[in-house]
């Protein structure tokens, strides 16, 4: 395990681990699980340190754009704003620091021991046009047998004004085969383990200024619309730490 994680140390200019001050137990667990990784904890926006109204009034967050982008026309929750803001802060720090490519974890990421040995092969397969690589993700990794009918239904819904996803997103909903351990990204969930280069960071900052996307929806839209050339590792190499009932441990998003 340690040897394989060390390949990431050599490949990426910087490894960020997003956290908040209150998440000391999660940082301890991360340190235990990733002892071979050269990383730095990055303390982002804490929802306890700013008000929702302030974020709206000072232009940090645009609730009208958030409703426009959300599939079900919902505003972002306080914690979701903090999470999205924190990821944008990392992109900004990356550009300010002059890094070419960085790996970003959230502090509740855990390695999948069954997949870690694939890391060297994955790094060798990353194409030159890759701007975003999701090392951890959920949903739409496989194309189901019913995908054609499902997409047709979504296209009809969009034409009738009942679905916000446009035709490009619908066409690219599911990941597509690329190489032995990579797929061209579709529309996926989560931001607990992914990598970006400078061009991706610049585009994501532009899309997220003011804040208007839930963090994982930002990546999903950027990938599915082709704004950012995106791939996923298949299967995921890193997982989201969850309790036995499937809920996320000590969520700071809600």
Per-chain topology:
Blueprint: H1 2-11, E1 14-19, H2 24-33, E2 40-43, H3 52-57, H4 63-69, H5 78-97, E3 101-106, E4 109-111, H6 119-125, E5 132-134, H7 147-159, H8 167-171, E6 176-177, E7 182-184, E8 193-197, H9 198-207, H10 215-224, E9 230-233, E10 238-240
Parallel strand pairs: 1-2, 1-3, 5-9
Antiparallel strand pairs: 3-8, 4-10, 5-8, 6-7, 7-9
Helix pairs in contact: 5-9
Distance between the termini: 33 Å
Secondary structure tally, helices: 10
Q: Which structural class do the helices and strands define?
A: alpha/beta
SS elements, strand count: 10
Strand order of the largest sheet: 2-1-3-8-5-9-7-6
Mean pLDDT: 95
Task: Please describe what this structure looks like.
With 254 residues, the chain is α/β, with parallel strands linked by helices. Helices cover 39% and strands 15% of the residues. The protein has ten helices and ten strands. The strands form two sheets. An eight-stranded mixed β-sheet has the order 2-1-3-8-5-9-7-6. The protein has a two-stranded antiparallel ribbon with strand order 4-10. The longest helix has 20 residues, at 78-97. The protein is globular.
Key phrases:
single chain; 254 residues; alpha/beta; two-stranded antiparallel ribbon; 10 helices; 10 strands; globular
Write a short abstract of this structure.
It is built from ten helices and ten strands.
């Amino acid at each position: 395990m340690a040897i394989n994680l060390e390949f990431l140390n050599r490949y990426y200019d910087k490894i960020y681990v997003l956290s908040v001050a209150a998440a000391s137990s999660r940082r301890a667990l991360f340190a235990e699980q990733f002892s071979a990784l050269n990383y730095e904890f990055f303390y982002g926006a804490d929802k306890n340190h700013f008000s929702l109204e302030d974020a709206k009034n000072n232009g940090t967050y645009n609730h009208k754009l958030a409703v426009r982008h959300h599939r079900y026309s919902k505003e972002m929750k306080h914690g979701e704003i903090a999470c999205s803001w924190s990821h944008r802060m990392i992109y900004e720090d990356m550009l300010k620091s002059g890094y070419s490519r960085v790996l970003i974890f959230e502090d509740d990421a855990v390695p999948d021991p069954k997949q870690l040995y694939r890391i060297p092969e994955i790094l060798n397969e990353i194409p030159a046009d890759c701007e975003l690589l999701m090392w951890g993700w959920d949903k739409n990794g496989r194309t189901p047998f019913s995908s054609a009918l499902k997409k047709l239904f979504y296209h009809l819904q969009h034409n009738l004004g009942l679905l916000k996803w446009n035709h490009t997103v619908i066409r690219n909903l599911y990941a597509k085969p690329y190489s032995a351990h990579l797929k061209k990204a579709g529309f996926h969930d989560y931001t607990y383990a992914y990598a970006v280069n400078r061009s991706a960071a610049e585009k994501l900052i532009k899309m997220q200024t003011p804040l208007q996307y839930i963090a994982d929806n930002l990546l999903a839209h950027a990938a599915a619309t082709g704004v950012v050339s995106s791939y996923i590792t298949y299967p995921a190499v890193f997982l989201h730490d969850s309790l036995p009932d499937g809920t996320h441990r000590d969520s700071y998003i809600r």
